[in-house]
TrEMBL record:
Keyword Transmembrane helix attached: yes
Keywords associated with the record: Membrane, Transmembrane, Transmembrane helix
Name this polypeptide is given: Membrane protein YkvI
Signal peptide: none
InterPro entries: YkvI-like
Transmembrane domains' residue ranges: 32-52, 72-101, 113-132, 139-161, 189-211, 223-247, 267-291, 303-322, 328-346
Species annotation: Halomonas alimentaria
PANTHER family xref list: CONSERVED MEMBRANE PROTEIN, MEMBRANE PROTEIN
Length: 365
């Protein structure tokens, strides 16, 4: 077997694991806040990630798609595909806003500075990167991913084994955590798991479509999607149990992973905060670049002006707060992802039905 499936898997995971995941806030709201049953939610998300990753990569490989727009047109038709693309772009801007808010939360929680300081600093870095085309910085930040994952896993495993809270206490505290579906007509762990997979697929769909289209063997592309989904599931599971074991210390905290790192040692917390800032920066650049590119050609004067405008607007909106924005923007993006899930599931069902019909007709001769 070639290395291509593993390359697709690692890229798939890198797309999904951004600043929101590493901070622990996503996992806290989508899984941990439901208590022990949230573990079942991580398994549901893992299965969905594996299936959807397989389907997107295989479909784009079969089409040899050069952009995600071709896959959207194949799924929804020309007009509906364009509409979905525009809505998706709008919510990707929302993810960029969440990253600006996350930067403010890191500087406030770790260094005692006003949240606006972190937001302004990241906004300036994002604008400079988009205007000056500093590709080397993004490549350097990408190298932080393995370090960040190792930190997160080490901290959560350490926190799990050093936790002394009883299961009854943790279940009681979980009721105080603002989960995604609390306040909905139906609050259920399955809804959290479904929305988590759907909003992340919406975020990762454009890049995964392109990567799949670069792979000639659709079976290898599908395997890469499956491996990436399973890997994501393992990471979510481990982070979730680490957060749950220490939930009594994390209620109302914007950066749960950073709080756990502080409990290990101040040095680990400092390294963790720097790694989080790097990941948030990388995610923010990607989101604002994709959104701005919808309105102007990259590297033009118009693109630079729009980069400044959109990032500044994002900074203003980011003042609503990291936790609040995650609880608002991500479920809305999840609805867009649900549309994608339904379309991908229907496409998979149709392809299987046609394949069975083909086998039946060939066997009749």
């Amino acid at each position: 077997m070639s290395k291509q499936p593993f390359l697709i898997a690692m890229t798939f995971m890198s797309i999904i694991i951004g600043g929101g995941f590493a901070s622990g806030q996503e996992v806290l709201q989508f899984f941990t806040g439901y208590g022990v049953i949230g573990i079942a939610g991580t398994l549901v998300s893992a299965l969905l990630f594996a299936f959807l990753g397989m389907q997107i990569a295989r479909m784009s490989s079969s089409m040899q798609a050069r952009s995600h727009k071709e896959v959207l047109v194949a799924l929804f038709g020309t007009r509906a595909g364009l509409a979905i693309d525009l809505v998706l772009s709008f919510f990707l801007f929302g993810v960029g806003v969440v990253m600006l808010a996350g930067s403010g939360s890191i500087f406030a929680q770790q260094y005692g500075l006003p949240p606006l300081f972190g937001g302004v600093l990241l906004s300036v870095l994002v604008i400079l990167t988009l205007c000056l085309r500093v590709r080397g910085i993004i490549n350097l930040i990408s190298a932080i991913m393995p370090v960040l994952l190792l930190l997160v896993l080490t901290i959560t495993v350490y926190s799990f084994f050093t936790s002394s809270a009883s299961l009854e206490t943790l279940e009681a505290v979980a009721t105080e955590v603002p989960t995604i579906s609390k306040g909905w007509p139906v609050s259920h762990w399955f809804i959290g798991a479904l929305l988590y997979a759907s909003f992340n697929i919406a975020v990762g769909f454009p890049m995964l479509s392109v990567i799949g289209g670069l792979t000639r063997d659709s079976r290898e592309a599908a395997l890469g999607g499956i491996l990436g989904g399973v890997g994501l599931g393992v990471l979510i599971f481990l982070l979730n149990i680490g957060l749950f074991a220490n939930l009594e210390r994390l209620v109302g905290v914007d950066m749960p992973s950073l709080m756990l790192a502080t409990a290990v040692s101040p040095l680990v917390a400092m390294v963790m905060s720097l790694a989080l800032i790097c990941m948030i920066y990388s995610t923010a650049v990607g989101m604002f670049f994709a959104f701005t590119a919808r309105f102007a050609t990259p590297e033009t004067s118009r693109f630079k002006v729009f980069s400044v405008l959109f990032t500044t607007v994002g900074l203003v909106l980011s003042q609503f707060g990291f936790s609040t924005l995650i609880g608002t923007v991500y479920p809305m993006l999840g609805v867009v992802g649900l549309v994608l899930i339904v379309a991908l599931g229907y496409r998979w069902h149709t392809a299987r039905r046609e394949a069975r019909a083909g086998l039946a007709s060939s066997s009749s001769y």
